Amino acid sequence: MSLLRVERVTKRFRGLVAVDAVSLEVEKGAIFAVIGPNGAGKTTLFNLIAGVYPCDDGAVYFDGARIDGMAPEAVCALGLARTFQIVRPFPGLTVHENVAIGAMLRQPKPQAAFAEAEEVLRKLDLWDRRAQTAASLTLPDRKRLEVARALATRPGLLLLDEVMAGLRPTETDRMVEILRMINREEGVTIVLIEHVMRAVMALAEQVHVLNHGASIAEGSPREVTRHPQVIASYLGAEALG
Amino acid sequence: MTLPLVLEVLIQGMLTGLIYGLMALGLSVIFGVVRVVNFAHGEFAVVGMYGAFILFTTLKIDPFIAMAPLAALFFVVGYGLQRSLVVHFIRRPDHEQFILLVGLAIVMVNGLLMIFGPDARHVDLPYSYDSWMLGPVLVDKVRAYAALAALGVAGALFAFFRYTQTGLAIRACADNLTGAAVVGLDIDKLYALTFGIGLACVGAAGALLVSIADVTPMLAPAFTLLAFTIVIIGGLGSMGGALLGGLVIGVAEALASIIIAPSMKTMVSFGLLVVILALRPQGLMGKRAA
Amino acid sequence: MRREHFLLGLLAAVLLALPLALDRYQTSVLVLVFLAAYMGQAWNVMMGFAGLLSLGHALYLGLGAYVSAALFVHFGLSPLLGLFVAVLICVGVAMAIGALSFQFRIEGVYFALLTIAFAEVARIGFDHLKWTGGAGGFFLSVAGSQGQWWNLRGGPLFFYYVSLAMAAAAFALCVALRRSKLGYQWLAVREDAEAARAVGIDVTRARMSAVVVSAAMSALGGVAHVFYYNNVFSAQIFDMSRSIDIMLAPIIGGIGTLFGPILGAFILIPLGEALIHATQALGINAPGAKAVFFGLALMIIIFLAPSGIWPSLRKRLGIGEGKP
């Protein structure tokens, strides 16, 4: 059975259809990418899954339970964690506190939560920065902190919204490595929105393409990059080299 | 309670409400553009009242005339205040802006107390007690003049924001700050102008208020709250909303003082405020934030 | 032993022994310091921890005072029992205001204004309530009850220890809360409510609990206030300037810090007293001058050091805060 099932969800903003009857299924343990040009409705789709907005139509199932209409905190408690495209750390708190607050969802004892946060921080190469405030971090570190905080909630599924954007190639490779490790070693299913195609090709087993709010293709990275409609709408000739 | 009495109170409430509206307009303009809540607004209104009071007792200048130089002076003060002090707080958290202006309000109200003492002062105009009889209904002349003057100032302000280059530039800042900066508008200067305009409104309103009511320093916090209530009821940032809110509050308080008790009228305004916050938080004429 | 524990112990020992060296007036000044430190900590739970700016905290102070005093005067109920009723009523009112605000997403400036509105409503309401003396004030009789500690009757020395215990207990509570899961949830909500939701925090519940804790603490402050002064006037206790007084110590000491409200009270209250004496000697309107000075202090602090005095002082002393 699939871990995440999105069934014909639709969202309109003042008459504009941001997400139009999109359906997708993500298997447990998979790494799944959602791509599409700017304004294709990717982030809105994430917000619908994570409970930020109610769906106008359709349904979202996580681990067999219907979650659309639930509050974001309830969705997170079920094991579906997300990052924000524009990072939203708790700016005045330290890196360690940021992640420990994530860990407190499953580990109500603060001391134990801080210990758990340490593990996560080491995994994401942030342990050296633990005493800094989140506001003082560089962008790549903030992106990593965003992933660390979500990961600390011990999710079954991680929704990652453009965590590679703005990273240099070496940093991207490191992030790909980290995500793969999280996926393999801890069995966390990952759904990512990504523009950096090199990361998508390296990571994703299945890719879903959105354009103007609607699904236009789904398949392996190889398949979708050959799909004529995808090439036309999004990648363009030069991206395929 | 007779019908003429009710009509009289209604009209009186509307006239007073327009003056309140002008005062609140200043608050609304400042918030709508600079995004800073002027927590010393009522204090400025009371300083305006004392200004008109001094001009009247020393130079025999009628408050309706004193309104102009006071508005000009307040404009300069507002301009300077924004340039020197508030500008440093534009990007700071809400509570820091609040505390800065609360501090200013405390300094102002207690400064007034030290200078003028707690006693109520009033301006005795030669026509203070004149009135018209509209059929069976009595209308205060002074109050009507003051309301007309308030409408006039508000009208001039509407025209300014609608038809002048500067007015349009200020509106552009309010709508889209980044866009305004990109096309090369001098944001700092426009903010300072706006703060000046906001205070000019409240200075003019102060001069008008002293023609119809006694002034004491202790009015200041009450006026700040009143201006807030009006602006939130009308819609924070909406100019028409401020006047409408003023009318609503003026009428509600006037009716409350005859139906319940004069000392309870503030309760009615706060009751209205709570209802509006709950049912229509963007105010009567405000746009709903996405 | 860590350095902060040593310093804290030293402070406690000095404060416990201090009345031996103080006259009646000096003792009464310290009572004001402790009460301000106590109320500052209560306010700080809401603003400093959970990021909810209350500009109407006098509401809870006044309600606590009126409820406990009314129960004592009309029914002879000891304030040690009456305080439970006072806390209950304040918590009820706080929950109603919280429910209204959070249900309808009244935040920031609007929330602050709503808190003032409720305090004003209470002020006007108690002005008209004959049962508690109306606008003329409500008085506790002083005669014949001196030394009845179980009725909170006593002089400055008695209240010195009562208020010291309250301030210390509030500090202990704040330390415990700050280090608890709830405390961290408050900080998360304060920093970014949307991000807090995304890590599974029920923001409404977190905010509501901050409002409730703060209101309950403030209610006790009101009980101490009325039994210390033996009177309460609605025009004063619910006044906006009272709410501002409550905020002063934590703002100057450091919003969101544990020791800031206490430090702020130790600076502000004696300074205010000194100012009153100085200006009286000069023949100036003393309360006005004191208030002008406080207003200026507020502006200068928020301009130059918006996080207050304690954070920089703390670094200089080498003291950590808030780590588990």
Strand content of chain C: under 5%
How many helices of chain B? 11
- What's the order of the H and E elements of chain B? HHHHEEHHHHHHH
The overall strand count of chain C is 2
Overall CATH architecture of chain B: Orthogonal Bundle
In short:
The complex is a heterotrimer of chains A (241), B (290) and C (324). Chain A is of the alpha/beta class. Helices cover 40% and strands 26% of the residues of chain A.
Description:
The complex is a heterotrimer of chains A (241), B (290) and C (324). With 241 residues, chain A is an alpha/beta fold. Chain A has helices spanning 42-50, 72-77, 95-103, 110-123, 139-152, 169-186, 197-203, 221-226, 228-240, and strands at 2-13, 16-27, 31-35, 57-62, 65-66, 80-82, 157-161, 189-193, 206-211, 214-219. In chain A, the strands form two sheets. Chain A has a six-stranded mixed β-sheet, with helices on both faces. In chain A, α4 (110-123) packs across α5 (139-152). Helix content of chain B is 74%, strand content 3%. Chain C has a domain at 25-238. Chain C is 74% helix and 1% strand. Chain C has 14 helices and two strands. The longest helix of chain C is centred in the middle third of the chain and has 27 residues, at 203-229. The B-C interface holds B 37, 85, 88, 92, 94-96, 98-100, 102-111, 113-114, 221, 225, 228-229, 232, 261, 263-264, 266-267, 270-271, 273-274, 277-278, 281 and C 47, 53, 55, 100, 103-106, 108-110, 112-114, 116-118, 120-121, 124-125, 127-128, 240-241, 244, 247, 251, 255, 284-285, 287-289, 291-292, 294-299, 302-303, 306.
Keywords:
heterotrimer, A: 241 residues, alpha/beta, Rossmann fold, 6-stranded mixed sheet, 4-stranded antiparallel sheet, 9 helices, 10 strands, 40% helix, globular, disordered C terminus, B: 290 residues, mainly alpha, ABC transporter involved in vitamin B12 uptake, BtuC, two-stranded antiparallel sheet, 11 helices
